[in-house]
Design goal:
41% of the residues lie in helices and 26% in strands. By secondary structure, it is α+β, with helices and mostly antiparallel strands. The strands form four sheets. It has a five-stranded antiparallel sheet with strand order 2-1-5-4-3. It has a five-stranded antiparallel sheet with strand order 7-6-10-9-8, with helices on both faces. Helix 9 crosses helix 13, helix 10 packs across helix 11 and helix 11 runs antiparallel to helix 13.
């Protein structure tokens, strides 16, 4: 095979390469090249066999480096350099003497490699940064995969469970000495779209507050994302619980001390009113009718305020008992429709002498659930009472229906409404958003929230200023109750 046939064979082979390729003789003149090389050079018009390489070299970089690159190849047999093309794409050129009279050079686009290296450096820096952040958290953190294995954790979690060494790879979450943790994770798996909170028992009878939610990652193809596990954050609240218990005991003592004089005030006010009606008013001449009316009004104010104060004391006592876990629950199977009927009957007097209409819309298929009858009545009475308080005129509707595995109860009013920024905090203790028109401790809705959550449910409000409010709570049916 002669030289021309050999060169044609080489030309056919190099044209199939993805990399840029060219060959020069000892004078630095081009012998042959492929199409990729022509593109990198910018398709110069002078590109033809026998032209000097330096005359058509277009990549960014000074020509002496190119000349040095070629000269080094002839001297050492191999040579390497890097340049950019006209689009600032980085190329690595590797040359090697071939056949004694030719320097063959292959140019490879390094951009994908450099991008991958940069992405790796950024990912590594991010991972190290996240690890540093997690290890400096005061709260324990772990990620549990869908099989229940601990995929990641921080140092605070190890300290929380009394470990000085690392957890074994793939350790099961049930092996941790944290009572209630597996129950919380199971609930998140059943309700992956919700963030759930539960108190757990840590070693040495310490108390922890655990918050858990699902972890997702981007899916492949048509799957936008997929659930891969559960993230759990645990805070040791033992000290906070001790402080709350002392506060609750103090409030309970004060409330009990107030109950006795309040009972005396109510008793004596009622006795005075009865004696006046029985023994004094019949003896007064008609000219004293105005005085009689004024005295009766004053006594009514005394009794009403004493009753209101007694109700506030009851709220304080309930909140104190709930805080320390001493609230008495009487759980039983009950008919939710009956609970609503009794609550509505208990609030009928609130609508007397008011331009308010009480409406009911209770679905017939509510069925039965497990709960504390009196406490659930307390929730509905409280919500209706609040609606009456903030609805000067219009209507209040008590609606109840079944939705999937939960019963939904809504108290809908046409009152003054609540600003959206206040809706999130209205169920917190001692929070009041009614301005100067509000009378109370700010505990009523917090107590409602505690009662509903004890039943495994949730409570919320939707409202806009001037457009009324809808307070609603959901209770699970027995087969899916959380407690």
């Amino acid at each position: 095979m002669n030289t021309i046939e050999t060169d044609k064979l080489y030309q056919g082979a190099i044209d199939t390469l993805q990399e840029a390729f060219f060959a020069v003789d000892r004078q630095g003149c081009l012998l042959f090249w492929n199409q990729r090389f022509a593109v990198v050079m910018g398709d110069p018009p002078l590109l033809q066999p026998g032209v000097a390489l330096l005359e058509i070299w277009q990549p960014v970089g000074d020509r002496p480096n190119v000349a040095e690159f070629v000269e080094r190849g002839w001297q050492d047999g191999v040579t390497t350099t890097e340049t950019y093309d006209l689009d600032w794409v980085l190329y690595q050129w590797h040359g090697q003497v071939w056949g004694g009279d030719r320097l063959a050079v292959l140019g490879r686009d390094l951009s994908p490699l450099r991008r991958a290296e940069e992405a790796w450096r950024l990912a590594l820096a991010e991972a190290l940064g996240i690890t540093a952040i997690l290890d400096n958290l005061a709260d324990g953190l772990m990620v549990v995969d869908s099989q229940g294995w601990i995929a990641r954790y921080n140092q605070a979690l190890l300290r929380m469970v009394g470990r000085t060494d690392a957890l074994p790879p793939g350790d099961d979450v049930s092996s941790l000495p944290i009572a209630g943790l597996t129950t919380l994770i199971a609930q998140v798996e059943q309700h992956p779209d919700r963030t759930l909170t539960m108190e757990v028992v840590l070693p040495e009878q310490r108390v922890g507050q655990a918050v858990a939610s699902s972890v997702y990652r981007k899916g492949l193809g048509a799957v936008s994302e997929m659930r891969v596990g559960t993230a759990v954050l645990i805070r040791d609240i033992t000290h906070e619980r001790e402080v709350l218990q002392m506060k609750a005991e103090f409030l309970s003592t004060v409330a009990h001390e107030l109950r006795t004089p309040l009972a005396s005030v109510l008793g004596f006010a009622s006795l005075v009113r009865d004696r006046l009606v029985e023994s004094v008013w019949p003896l007064l001449p008609p000219s004293h009718h105005k005085l009689q009316t004024k005295i009766e009004q004053n006594l009514a104010v005394v009794m009403a305020e004493a009753e209101r104060l007694a109700a506030l004391v009851d709220d304080v006592l309930d909140e104190a008992k709930m805080t320390v876990g001493k609230f008495a629950w009487q759980m039983e199977t009950l008919d939710l429709s009956e609970v609503l009927d009794r609550a509505i009957a208990a609030t009928t007097s609130l609508f007397e002498h008011r331009p308010l209409l009480l409406q009911t819309d209770v679905a017939p298929d509510l069925g039965t659930l497990t709960g504390d009858r009196n406490r659930l009545i307390q929730v509905v009475v409280n919500l209706i009472g609040n609606a009456v308080k903030f609805t000067p005129a219009g209507s209040i509707t008590c609606r109840a229906y079944r939705k999937g595995e939960r019963a939904i109860v809504e108290i809908i009013d046409t009152g003054i409404g609540i600003a959206p920024e206040n809706c999130a905090r209205i169920f917190e203790k001692f929070e009041q958003v009614g301005g100067g028109t509000t009378k109370g401790t700010g505990l009523g809705l917090a107590i409602c929230k505690h009662i509903v959550e004890h039943h495994g449910g949730e409570i919320w409000v939707t409202s806009r200023l001037g457009e009324g409010s809808t307070f609603a709570f959901a209770l699970p049916y027995p087969n899916c109750a959380a407690k």
